[in-house]
Design goal:
alpha+beta, FAD/NAD(P)-binding domain, D-Amino Acid Oxidase, Chain A, domain 2, eight-stranded mixed sheet, 12 helices, 19 strands, 25% strand, FAD
Length: 435
């Protein structure tokens, strides 16, 4: 608590002092990824002028704080993907960081349940995938007795036990990362919204960041960690009027919640078997640090980029989504799943009935409306989902050769924040050595 108050005081102080206008590195985006990247660069390059820009008045305002708080172990991701490799590495780095900083987290583990025989084959494939990814401690639970050993309330034909999974408050992690950054001499600047990125006339600081209602900033190098606004920032870096084959889809994600006193036997994360062809994990139970359990989520398209409420509507965002062939093709490909998600959102009883497959005797009468999140997915033109991170390193000509764009960082990016930061810095040093 003391650290959080100290960090917020420093943040407020930094927004009122005279901001420099030239930096060696500027990181755009104060979510958990941008903060981890800025910290990594400064720890590796002490004495350099490094700035973390955030358009909001605080850190981790969106995806980094609006999530289920699960540290993923890496079992759900395709072997040899960036998601898989960085997740398996990242969860260990994150746990060590939490231990070093005394950040509270729960070593809850995770049970993935096949409620009927139809899903056992997929569960076994998931087990093999986890082994390929070198996920630690996986166990295939072959009977109801074995399942109840790890989660007494659960019911299923078979299950997968993932002991490495944990739960944490990612906002708190972000604040500690920012505290490291500030105390190492970094500049953290709030209320700076980048509206354009272009070539400057200064050969030493060739990148000009145009900022809304502020003087421009100049940088030698820029790392873009745009999160929800990645599409807008990526458009600034791409050739004007070029054909875009991929499009972001912003989803409003709805959770339900229950106090853990009504479910004392549930101490672990509980998931159903996911569709391995889609980048979604399905509804699940996730114990929270604050003493509640999240149920869900369900997801429907958001009506604006930061559309947490149904009455928050952007006509330009809505029209872009409605007339998108990427979105249209996605709906055609996944029509039954789309209808299913809509029903789960409109009628919470349907969501609860689904969850009863895994825990039949849960105290569902005490379930209340939980938090709402906004997430982004990336669609190909044929309607398929992009299923891995997209990092663009020094693409194009001119200033593009000095910019790293972390274009697409969906879950489990929060788990992988430290390994992503290490990966980005390593790629940077392979091209440049002048920091």
């Amino acid at each position: 608590m003391f650290l959080s108050l100290t960090t917020r005081y420093l943040h407020q102080k930094l927004t009122t002092i005279n901001i420099k206008n030239k930096y060696d590195v500027v990181v755009i985006g104060g979510g958990i990824i941008g903060t981890a990247v800025a910290r990594k660069f400064l720890l590796e390059c002490p004495g350099q002028d490094i700035c973390l820009l955030e358009k909001e008045c605080s850190l981790a305002k969106h995806q980094s704080s609006h999530n289920s708080g699960v540290m993923h172990c890496g079992v759900f991701y395709k072997p040899n993907s960036l998601k898989a490799n960085l997740c398996v590495e990242g969860i260990e780095l994150l746990k060590k960081y939490c231990d070093d900083k005394n950040i509270q987290y729960q070593r809850s583990g995770k049970v993935v349940i096949a409620p009927d025989l139809c899903q056992v084959n997929v569960l076994c494939k998931l087990y093999e995938q986890g082994q390929d990814n070198k996920v630690r401690g996986l166990q295939l639970l072959e009977s109801q007795r074995e399942i109840r050993k790890y989660s007494p309330s659960c019911k299923g034909e078979k299950a997968l036990w993932c002991p490495d999974t944990a739960n944490v408050n990612f906002r708190e992690v972000t604040e500690h990362l920012a505290d490291d950054f500030i105390h190492s001499g970094g500049n953290l600047v709030f209320n700076y919204k980048v509206v354009d990125i272009k070539q400057s006339e200064d050969s030493c600081f060739p990148i000009c960041l145009c900022v809304s209602e502020r003087p421009p900033l100049f940088a030698k190098y820029v790392v873009v960690c745009g999160g929800l606004h990645s599409e807008t920032l990526s458009d600034m870096l791409e050739v004007k009027n070029s054909i875009k084959h991929q499009q972001f889809l912003i989803l409003k994600v709805n959770y339900q919640e229950i106090d853990s006193k009504y479910c004392e036997n549930l101490q672990t994360n509980v998931y159903g078997v996911p569709d391995l062809e889609l980048p979604f994990l399905g509804a699940h139970f996730s114990p929270q640090i604050k003493g509640t359990i999240l149920l869900g989520p369900s997801a429907v398209p958001a009506l604006k980029v930061e559309g947490y409420c149904n009455d928050e509507v952007s006509l330009s965002h809505l029209s872009k989504m409605v007339f998108s062939c990427n979105v249209r093709n996605m709906v055609v490909r996944n029509f039954s799943q789309c209808i299913n998600q809509l029903c789960h959102t409109l009628n919470t009883d349907i969501q609860i009935k689904y969850l009863q497959q895994f825990i039949p005797n849960f105290s569902y009468q005490y379930v209340i409306k939980g938090p709402t999140a906004v997430q982004c997915q990336l669609l190909n033109s044929d309607g398929t989902f992009v299923d891995d991170y997209i990092f663009n390193f020094f693409n194009g000509n001119g200033i593009g050769k000095r910019i790293i764009n972390l274009k697409y960082t969906p879950s489990p990016a929060a788990t992988s924040c430290l390994s992503i930061a290490d990966y980005v810095y390593k790629k940077f040093t392979e091209c440049y050595t002048d920091l």
